[in-house]
Amino acid sequence: MLAESGNLLMVGSRVRDNDNWMKMSRALVDAAALAATAAEKKDANALEAAADPITTACMDCHRPYRDGGRQMGVPPR
Which of 38, 51, 61, 77 sits a CA distance of 20 to 30 A from 68? Predict the structure, then answer.
């Protein structure tokens, strides 16, 4: 589901630009694939390790596109 979300961000009117937006969306797909593979293998350590790339993909995209440059989780002033 998370990988498909990344794919959907790269389609049609959802695309914000053809540079960073697409790279960040692809990073989400790749990070989700790591987690899916770990889950399929029932590898808890690999699943735990996959959390960091997912978090990074989310933060890297949310910061410029959703949060206007502020740190994720920090309320606006």
Answer: 51
DSSP class per residue in the chain: -HHHHHHHTTSGGG---SSHHHHHHHHHHHHHHHHHHHHHTT-HHHHHHHHHHHHHHHHHHIIIIISTTSPTTPPP-
DSSP letter at 15 equals -
Contacts of 25 (CB under 8 A, 6+ apart): 6, 7, 9, 10, 61
Which residues, other chains included, contact 53 with Cβ-Cβ below 8 Å and sequence gap of 6+? 27, 30, 31, 34
